[in-house]
Amino acid sequence: MGPAYTYANVISEIDVLGPAGLLEEQRAKSGSRDRQSTFCATPALHSVCSSSGCWDFSFQLHDPIKLVIKGSDGRRHWIPYRDTAATRAMRREIEGINADYSGLVLDLPSVEKTDHHWIVEESTIRPTPLILYRVFNRGSWVCGGRAYAYWQQLPKCFRAQLLINGEPVAEPDYRGLHAALIYAERGMRLVGDPYEIDGFERGQSKLAFLIAVNSKSTRDAIGSLVRRHGMECAAATNIIAEIKAKHNRVSDAFCSDAGIRLMRQDSDLILASTRACLNAGIAALPVHDSLIVPLRCEQTAAAILVENFERRYPTASPCRVTTNA
């Protein structure tokens, strides 16, 4: 990946190659949290590339640290940045993790495969070498920063079917991480399940909580619940109010655009846990607030997640990590 592979450039090429019958696209719905848009070569493109002798493509990551800004066209664009001690340290961390991945083999035997892709439900995923890269948003090093890789495109039920070097996996994950971080950065103790709201199902409350944290205003949060998730306006208004009331000590975090800043914290936390697992001889693949690890290492990895949280936020409540056990 390099400066030529911007969102605008890729989309414009898809718009040309798709109608020409050379690419097949599976576009995710706007606002979808479950899957990403993907595309793959059609047999026609395979034929063209094979006959011209240019089909032997390789994946190269030019810089694992990406700084992104949204342009006037509404699309994200990679932008150049000045290297500093901080960016060099982040690059060394990612490059070190990627180097440790060199001996790992990731497989998903339960799905259909082509020469170059995994066919997962309605999506086509290209398993590249095991390589992470971090993306920082809004042209700022304090916004975003999550690490990305192809295995994160898999739905959780398919991630559970992965094999690392032939071994079955588990995925210990932080429970209510952004809620825990909101309280932790204020030195407060989070008591109970942050997503339990009387009169609403937990899944619905969790969705509303996360939307409220990521929205810039109450109006935006309500609008997102109504337009993207089909909630009645009165119910959306009520659930946002109930969330603020339940978490009145930290109510300033809601509808304040806090999510993008919390992503920087969760990315640092999960990468530190990834590094600690690798140092302990545990193959660990991050998925934002969780780690894919060999099943036999699940409890050790969960303990590492807890330890890293408590080291960073010693005055906060003990965090909770969900495991299969």
Strand content: 15-25%
Structural class: alpha+beta
The pLDDT mean sits at: 87
* Helical run tally: 10
Compressed to H and E, one letter per element, the order equals HEEHEEHEEEEEEHEEEHHHHHEEHE
The poorly predicted ranges are none
Strand order of the largest sheet: 5-11-12-15-14
Which range best describes the helical content: under 10%, 10-25%, 25-40%, 40-55%, 55-70% or over 70%?
Answer: 25-40%
Describe the biggest sheet? Answer: 5 strands, antiparallel
Oligomerization: single chain
The end-to-end distance, rounded to whole angstroms, is 38 Å
Rg is 21 Å
- Global morphology: globular
Counted beta strands: 16
Task: Describe what you observe in this structure.
The chain is α+β, with helices and mostly antiparallel strands and 325 residues long. The chain has 10 helices and 16 strands. The strands form 5 sheets. Strands 5-11-12-15-14 form a 5-stranded antiparallel sheet, covered by helices on one side. A 4-stranded mixed sheet has the order 4-3-9-10. Strand 3 and strand 4 form a beta hairpin. Helix 5 (177-184) crosses helix 9 and helix 6 (202-214) crosses helix 8 (233-246). The longest helix has 21 residues, at 259-279. It is globular, with a radius of gyration of 21 Å.
